[in-house]
Design brief:
The protein is an all-alpha fold and 102 residues long. It contains four helices and no strands. It has a domain at 25-92. The chain starts with a helix and ends in an 18-residue tail after the last helix.
């Protein structure tokens, strides 16, 4: 009887743990949200990111900075205007004499 009870208890504990814990995808999504909302210049690792692997955290930080600075949009598409003209001035070869920076 005891030999049946132990595996059943272990299975129940594992099932409860799986139900109550977040998936890694959820953890990284929460980390990305925390990075988006942190104050300008804040370099501290948000508590929501404590369980994110170091390489994944570095990627999320870089992604957050690129989005905040306008280099990529929320879909990850590169802003070619900013890439080609980072200072906001038009390319003289494009013939945009009346261009006004944003």
């Amino acid at each position: 009887m005891r030999t049946r009870l132990v595996p059943a208890a272990i299975a129940a504990a594992l099932a409860l743990t799986a139900c109550s814990s977040e998936s890694y995808e959820d953890i990284t999504a929460n980390c990305a949200k925390a990075l988006e909302s942190r104050a300008e210049g804040d370099k501290e690792k948000p508590s929501a990111c404590k369980d994110v692997k170091e390489d994944d955290y570095d990627t999320l930080v870089i992604s957050s900075v690129l989005e905040k600075d306008g280099w990529v949009d929320k879909d990850g598409e590169v802003n070619t205007d900013k890439l080609l003209n980072p200072d906001g001035t038009p390319d003289p070869d494009l013939g945009l004499d009346d261009f006004e920076p944003r």
